[in-house]
Protein 1
Amino acid sequence: MRPDEVRAVVVAFVYFFFALSSWFVLRPMRDTVAASSGATQLSWLWVGTLGTMLVANAVFSAVVVRFPPRKFIPYAYHAVALSLVAFYVAFRMLGAVEGSAADLWIGRAFYVWTSVFNLFVTSLFWCFMADAFQSEQAKRLFGFIGVGGTLGSISGSAVTAGLAARLGSANLLIVSVVLIEIAVLAVLQFPQTAAMSTGGTGAVSVRGRGAKGDDSAALGGSVFAGFTHVIKSRYLVATAVFIALFTFGSTFLYFEQSAIIGATFADRTSRTVVLARIELAVQVLTVLTQIFFTGRLIRWFGLGVVLAVVPLLSMVGFGLLGGVSSFAAVASFVVLRRAGNFALTNPAMEVLFTVVPREDKYKAKSFIETFVYRIGDQAGAWTFAGLVALGLSYTHIAWFAVPICAVWLGVSVWLARQQALLAQAVVGQSVSIAPDRDV
């Protein structure tokens, strides 16, 4: 870390800590709803999530063209906080009786909404980071910045695991609101990117065609740019496919986890506690990997190898799960896969967006990491439900995911090669270029 980067990195670390701790207080509550649902009912919840995500993307696109990042990011987080207050009131006043019709429908609405906002909370953070740091900086710093999010995840999971039984799930919503508002304060403290544009190297910060010299101006452009720019670029299309294949496999594993936990643990509180413990194990393994290995692996072996780790792990894991279907097996695979994703895949994937124009860092990136993400979820959900309807067991369904992960592996290798070419072109020309439109 260079001296001129210290403030930005520390503030980003704090920002990510509180943003993810806010979400991970809620994640076990959301997953409790999933554990109480069958595969078909869960698929319908994901249909609702996809529809809500489409509406949320339209609203986000309308806001992002009118306001600079330092304004629309706090606006978005304030909206999330208000929604959580509304759910708190609904759970306390209408859903106080567990298992009642009101409790059931409020829980379903909560599942859908939190499945939408958790992607926006994380995506907005990384949009901001991809805009603030160059490719070379990202490879050095994103692993450390990711530690902030992981520690926040551990803290949020620990809070839920330790306090859910004593405080009740509804009261944890207020804890989440406080944490996300602290994240907003961190956004406001982030240094102007123009002030760190040289990065200590004398190189000009690359923002994209027609970009402003700092982040105080609105992005402008079309509200449909998030979609149109993706379909015009092979690089962005491949990134979208990468995300969709990842979520497809994650959905298969998520459904296996939900079904087995639902059958193993009888009531809502015990399911919430065991899910929080799984989450805690994921985050502890993640932070150890981020501290000791993430940055070094990217430097030693390159972006391609790091992007390929989780696809390879997933091929092996689903193959082994095809031989045995138990709580221990599923929990172990979940911990390893999700820790690998947080510690390796996520920081490496965010590096991919440092070489695209500034407008794409917010619009196309958000579209890919939210709507396309949920498209992959939906495809995985209905495929899983269809295979269950055909009478396949969970072990047989696991084998279906192996070739999907093999394709995902191939896409990751191609993307890493393209990112290297684009990063070299940016450094050589000192201007931003649009992937595949100019290369």
Protein 2
Amino acid sequence: MSKELIDLMEQANALTPDEQLSLIAYLTQRLQRCEIKRKPSRSVMEFAGIAPNLLGGMDAQEYVRRIRSGEPLELEIEQMQSRKEE
């Protein structure tokens, strides 16, 4: 939350219940006139192939297994990538 929003909430707490209702009505009417843009939903397929060489040729399942076990992989991935470039 922004500092401004926190300040406004504290100010709203100081208002009487009638004033709080008036504030809610004002904000509601104002927002009804605004067009709220929603983020478009994404398909997982949009990300296919986005980073094909990220693992340096290592099997993704093997990569996940080794990451979960805490094994360092950076050096091995660099070596696999350098072998591909040769």
